[in-house]
Amino acid sequence: MAATTQCEQQTLVERLMSACGGSYAPEVRRKFFITGPQWAAAYQGQALFHAPTRQPVTPAEVIRHFARIGIGWWTTHDLDILSPEEMMTPRQDQILAGIETSLKQHGVQCSMVTCETFFSPVWAASPAGEQPEVRAYAALRLENLVEIGHRLGARFAVYWPGTLGYQIQGSVDETVMLKRYADLINAACAKDIALSRANHGATLRHCLEAKPFEPQAELILPTTDAMLGFIHSGLLQHPEMVGVNTEYLHELMWGGAPRAALARALVAGKLWHFDINDGYRLKHDVDIGVGLVNPLDWLNVLILLRAHGYNGPFNLDYKPPRTTSNHGVFQVSLPTAVDRFITLWEMAGEAIADPIISEATRALEAGAGITNINDADAVFEANKEIWTLHELIGHRLFQILLGQHRGRLFVDMN
Ligand code: 3MF
Ligand code: MG
Ligand code: MG
After folding, report:
1. For ligand 1, is residue 158 a contact (CB within 6 Å)?
2. Residue 74: CB within 6 Å of ligand 1?
3. 375: left (phi over 0), alpha (psi -120 to 50) or beta
4. Where do the structural domains in the chain lie, given as residue ranges?
């Protein structure tokens, strides 16, 4: 193949992108509660071992692109839009006014704000460490976040505590740290109650996000289950205002089954927000776009959420790969992530309505209809053929994933 010169490369990407077909129109994409993070779109490709590969992108540009793609909702950290020096100063008001203008101009809404408590040097020993000054500053940041949320019309506030843990074993009393962290969440909820009373509006939904490791060696709230325990620990003044933001990859990272973690949050009535991405088990936080690693698992996750009426946001918390250009982030990475999600969502609907899966499920639930239930051997013998349906359902889901239930598309006999 002939070389593709630098000036021909964007055209090639666009031609192949349209050859892929299967894109949804922006109006279709907008029907979903898909939220686009400022930090995902503006990620420059930097990490511990990586120099950036992309140029900075402003919030106004991100919002403009989201509108064009059909991502109707925008999410942000305080630090994505404000430097620490600008926060809680009159400059903050000016910057927020500019963002409000961009959102209005492009018909995009802010759905969630989140507080950065992991990147800045002040969090080196966690936002809930020993020093009262650090915790007082953390409380100010959380209260300020709630103010930003109210101002931008957000419905959710998310907290990923990041460095809430330790590097050096024995240097921290975990019970004390948990109480101190609860004080911070309590401060955010108290601020929220005061602001919503003053504005006669609703309070935010405060969502805790867990991650098993990274950036701290040991974290004291490492999983969604740990967060659910913390919400009901008695340390929070307003547990009814606090739920979880489960992240797909964070549950996979510790070896858990994301679908089961989501199910536990669902039955607790606390699954309010969901960070969608992909990656590998027991590895670091690679933040790959949804469906690129585990599409079958993703199909099953969405079957669960569709079946149980989850109606919260699907937040695209992934990182466009370093090999994708600035142009590629908005032409390929974000639209294809959205479209893979919608395709999987539609397939989940197909699986739920599939006559074969439905009949198999009903048959499994009906059982064999025998009456001598005090005889284990008889119960087993009576049911043993029906259990083959588990594998048949697995095969049917695979067929739906690959479109094979509509006929085989490619046969190469050679
Ligand atoms: C880190 C994360 C975070 C959180 C974000 C929202 C940068 O692994 O997933 O994304 O989702 O801070 O609270
Ligand atoms: Mg996340
Ligand atoms: Mg993450």
Report:
1. yes
2. no
3. beta
4. 25-353, 355-406
Q: What is the pLDDT of residues 56-114, one digit of tens each?
A: 999 999 999 999 999 999 999 999 999 999 999 999 999 999 999 999 999 999 999 99
Provide the pLDDT for residue 55: 98
**Distance from the alpha carbon of residue 285 to the mean position of ligand 3, in angstroms:** 6
Model-level pTM? 0.96
CATH superfamily placement of domain 25-353: Divalent-metal-dependent TIM barrel enzymes (3.20.20.150)
Q: Does the beta carbon of 78 sit less than 6 angstroms from any atom of ligand 1?
A: no
- Higher-confidence position of 33 and 48: 33
Q: Is the pLDDT at 142 greater than 70, yes or no? A: yes
Q: Is 312 helix (H, G, I), strand (E, B) or coil?
A: coil
Residues 6 or more apart whose Cβ sits within 8 Å of residue 45: 51, 52, 53, 54, 319, 320, 321, 322
Helix (H, G, I), strand (E, B) or coil at 316: coil
pLDDT at 411 over 90: no
Q: Is the CB of 300 under 6 A from ligand 1?
A: no
Round to whole Å and give the CA distance between 158 and 273. 8
Residue 259 sits at the vertex; the CA angle it makes with 258 and 262, to the nearest 5 degrees, is 85
Which of 328, 309, 236 is closest to 271 using CA atoms?
309
